[in-house]
Amino acid sequence: MKDFSLLETILYDPQQGFYLLNLHIARLLLAINDMNKNGHDFGSVESKDIINVLQESVRGNDRYLRVRLLLSKGGVLSTSHTDLDSPKPPLSCSSLVEAAKGGAVFSIVLDNCPSDVLDNPFVTHKTTCRDVYEDARHRSHCEWNPLNDHTPFDVVLWNKLGQVTETSIANLAIGTYSNNKWHWKTPHHSSGLLQGVFRQKLLEENDVEEVMITKEDLVSAHEIYRVRLLQDVVKEAMV
């Protein structure tokens, strides 16, 4: 197996610090524990080690940043970052619909075969090994160009039980409108997916419900949103 690192991608706000840092740290520590149990030596990294490396990486910086935190074998932490425009605060909106209002609509396609995602540690944990996602993108002829009308921008993965999981780069939320209100659901973690920190926050605040979602549920949804920390909430259209 090729070498890989554990990964977290974190939003840095110069006024408020690292967004959802506690959730990022908890997710990384869980990944370290699970990977170490399965014979991958990622050392004995603690919360304070992660915080120290992150704080040093943004010292003296007054810009919004996308900070990429890597943990390599042996417990070696490293960071890199890129500048961001000031992100809109989706959580200040009253609904997911409002958060996505006015933004671009991205095209997505349902993968044409199931992916090996059930109990797959390279899906349930965020790593640099993205073979499952890249294979799905290749099968679906996705391109990293949201303005291309002829090819999808992203693909929705599903497991061998016919349950929808996530896209190649983000979690999903599907909405139905009834009784004058929106009802939002996100695929259950046991279906085989990476549990994003923004998704976790939405669950904790009861903005979405975690349920099993079938391919048929996805196709019949009134709205489909891609939920990703650094892209806020993005509306998508099935093609």
UniProtKB/TrEMBL annotation:
Question: Which Pfam family, just one, is annotated for this protein?
Answer: Aminotran_4
InterPro entries xrefs: Aminotrans_IV, Aminotransferase-like, BCAT-like_C, BCAT-like_N
GO MF annotation, one: catalytic activity
Protein's name according to its UniProt entry: Aminotransferase class IV
> What is the organism of origin for this protein?
Phycomyces blakesleeanus (strain ATCC 8743b / DSM 1359 / FGSC 10004 / NBRC 33097 / NRRL 1555)
Tell me the classification of the organism that encodes this protein.
Answer: Eukaryota, Fungi, Fungi incertae sedis, Mucoromycota, Mucoromycotina
